[in-house]
Amino acid sequence: MLTITTSRALAACSTLDEVTPGTVATQVQHLTRLRGIGPNGALTLSTELFAWRQFTNGRQIGACVGLTPTPYHSDQHMHEQGISRSGNRRVRALSVELAWKWLLWQPQSALSHWYHAHFGQHRRAPVQRQARALPTAPNHAWTLDFVSDQLVDGARFRALTVLDIHTRLCLAIEIGIHLRGEQVVGT
């Protein structure tokens, strides 16, 4: 596979006066006319996908990139497992990114209308998080913390500490090699 830097290839595409059909430069020029596809994306699609193979339909492109469904069929069970993810991962990642950019920059296209009709707008409202109420009196709220450590001779131990959040005093410390649930509840 021929590897050329993006800047050199774009410079070569922009300096061509006469572009012959079917070349990478022609494909880059056609793809960059679409809103949402820049020169880097167009060059990647042209060199890694369209330059070495002729496609007759969208299913062939999806299979080459790895954007085909993987259905699961069993006796009574049928469900979709997602996409196959086989094929060129750079082109697949770029295709997914370009699909989202298409929805952003081409909102009036038939494809965007189809997507919004089937899947909705997918604009989530921001989650309003409430501040945690601070304790106003002693013994109003406690916190538990487990600490594990090792002695110089290699013996390991665990410590459970119980702290009052308001006064920041340590109410209890339980130390042991193995702390069981009964010991934690009894503390």
Please list the strands of the largest sheet in the order they lie side by side.
Answer: 3-4-5
Quantity of strands, as a count: 5
Portion of residues in beta strands equals 15-25%
Low-pLDDT residue spans: 1-19
Structural class: alpha+beta
Mean pLDDT: 79
Overall, the morphology is elongated
Please give the count of helices.
7
**Whole-angstrom Rg:** 30 Å
- Element-level helix/strand string: HHHHEEHHEEEH
Q: How helix-rich are the residues, as a percent range?
A: 25-40%
Regarding quaternary structure, how should these chains be classified?
A: single chain
User: Could you give a short account of the major beta sheet?
Assistant: 3 strands, antiparallel
How many structural domains in the coordinates?
2
- How far apart, in Å, are the first and last alpha carbons? 67 Å
Explain this structure to me?
The chain is α+β, with helices and mostly antiparallel strands and 187 residues long. The chain folds into 2 domains: 6-119, no CATH class; 142-186, no CATH class. It is 39% helix and 19% strand. Helix 1 (6-15) crosses helix 2, helix 2 crosses helix 3 and helix 3 crosses helix 5. The radius of gyration is 30 Å and the shape is elongated.
